[in-house]
Amino acid sequence: MTIIDLKPGQSGEILELELDRKMKNKLMEMGMTPGTSVKFVRTAPLGDPINIKVRGFNLGIRRAVAQNIILK
Amino acid sequence: MVTTYALTGNPNSGKTTIFNELTGSAQYVGNWSGVTVEKKEGNIKNTGVHIVDLPGIYSMSSSSIDEIIAMNYIVQDKPDGILNVVSASNLERNLYLTLQILEMNVPVVIILNMMDEVKRRNMDVDIKKLGDILGTKIISTGSNDRSELKKIKHIVDEDNKSTFERFSYFSKDITEAVDDISKAVSKSDLESGIDAKWLALKILEKDQEVLSALKDIDEGLLKKGEELKKELEAKYNEDITHLLAKQRYAFLSLTAKKVIKDTEGNLERETLTEKLDKYLTHRILSIPIFLGIMWLIYYITITGLGDMTIGFMEWLIGDFITGAAESGLAWIGASEMVESLVVDGIIGGVGAVLVFVPQIMILFFFISILEDSGYMARIAFMMDRVFKKFGLSGKSIIPMLVGSGCSVPGIMATRTLENERDRKLTIILTPFISCGAKMPVYLLFASAFFASSAHWVVFSLYVLGIGIAMASGMLLSKLRYKGEESGFLLELPPYRIPALKSVAIHMWDKGKDFLIRAGTVIFAASVILWFAQSFDFSFSHVADPSLSILALFGKAIAPVFIPLGFGDWITSVAFITGFAAKEIVISTLSVLHGVGEGALVTSLRGLYTPLSAYSFMVFILLASPCFAAISVMKKELNSWKETGFAVLYQTGTAYLMAMAVYQIGSLFF
Does A57 touch chain B (CB under 8 A)? Predict the structure, then answer.
């Protein structure tokens, strides 16, 4: 299961980020470490990117990235 | 003695507002050496305290130019201390950077900002406890109460060495590895002031950026670091950098729980921003809201207030200053030639650009409101899908929106793009978005040749410009600027009411930039143009401009434009003068045709057909922008080669498109 399998408003717990090192670095430094709760807030009007919420702040990421963030 | 403190903090932590609050108008903007990231400095009012504003960053690693700049500044320039702006409404993530700064073992004072946002949600932060945990002084502030900020003047003179126990949150094997390496770091490896333990951590992480900046690190030491790194990574089956991030955040989660007072469970509750976003980024509603806001801004800037300021500036420059200069020159008995140089050359050329300064300041007023309120991030969020298709990022829309007013600030606005590839592409594409100065040219030609459908003709040009920008994005991202996709990572910050002081400072900064350029580049170009149109090759003054250097030059290149539908020298010259400023095209045509702007329509009708007039407008739309825009492109691309490519690409596209319009059109009309 990944972030894009969540419905808007649902949350999940991060298990692993299956991304290249650079992207993984950036996301982890923003607090998306394994075990952190992440909420799928909503999709952008044109279907991509999506708005997620981690550690109390909102972040826009593309679907291509979101589908590589594995949840428990 | 001057005390220098560096200001750091996350993007959206309110760092810029704090900087403006501390320094007021006593600030100046430059560039960091070698890169085009803006460097702001200033003094705290009435003190000898100097503040350097470092770029807003999320972490102190070396994954972006901004982070490298911040880290290098702290390591190499060794400020007396760090002022770390931390947003209390987003404590965990903001403190990540704080931890990394504390790891560098430099004096730190925390400015805990946005306390009003926290209190509005019926929560609080235990400032004393946080200060005890981090071993630092904390100044708390919020947009409604800045009184505590005054304490900074005194605090920076005290000893702010942190009592924080660094690395205590890392697992034992990591701290042991750090100790191991730091013991082996010999004095000779340490440029004065660099902390041995921090350097050891960087060696363990194998941070190339840091290690290459500090040459002469012992090979054996690097090898030892590499071995320990491999050992730890094998043990945890994880990249060391990710391991460190994990352990830091584990500590921060705990810290946040200890210091955030949230008895009502409001932290999880929906914020006002989230309520607003339900509409502002709504699947359907968001698009008309966005278009409505844009329309309002352009309506006010271009037709409303903008028209008034242009009228005023035209009067000021055309009547008042010109009149004063003429009578002044007559009074001192200046020759006709000097008068022509001053009035036609300098005031005419520089003035044509100055006329637009108030309008540009109004546009920037709105743009900084869009930025500071947090809505700009939503625009980028909404438009990313479209821009991605054309090889760009949603953030590219910001420079293009600005560029519809003037390419110069548009190109400067590309600084918000962190991906170099996206940034270069956006710089090259922004001039395709028709700027305000081209509007008068369209209006003249459209009304002369397409009376009843003039508006549609002008509209079609704007659409063509956007279309060419998009198509070029697709083409150039496949051919020239391949590189990696940015991945688009964008924080959607809480909506905030912009601080008037910051908006005013931003507006004035941009206006000032423009004035400086008018006084330098445009001034020089105007003098050269005047000279070229007033003299022949034997440097004697000519009364008939068709005998001037400019005319000879125009005649020489005129044949090039025959396939586009016009091969007369005046049109060619107008293109050349268009390099100085696009609106000069009209004055060139009217001067060289020897008629006023009113009679110009009649002369133009004799020279062009509707088809060649359209071809002319297409060329003006797409061809290389004015000198000012080229010079700022050079500054931002930081390369003559890239700038040359951009100008050639733009002019080449203009030529091909205008030729296509004329040649294909000739088959039908």
Answer: yes
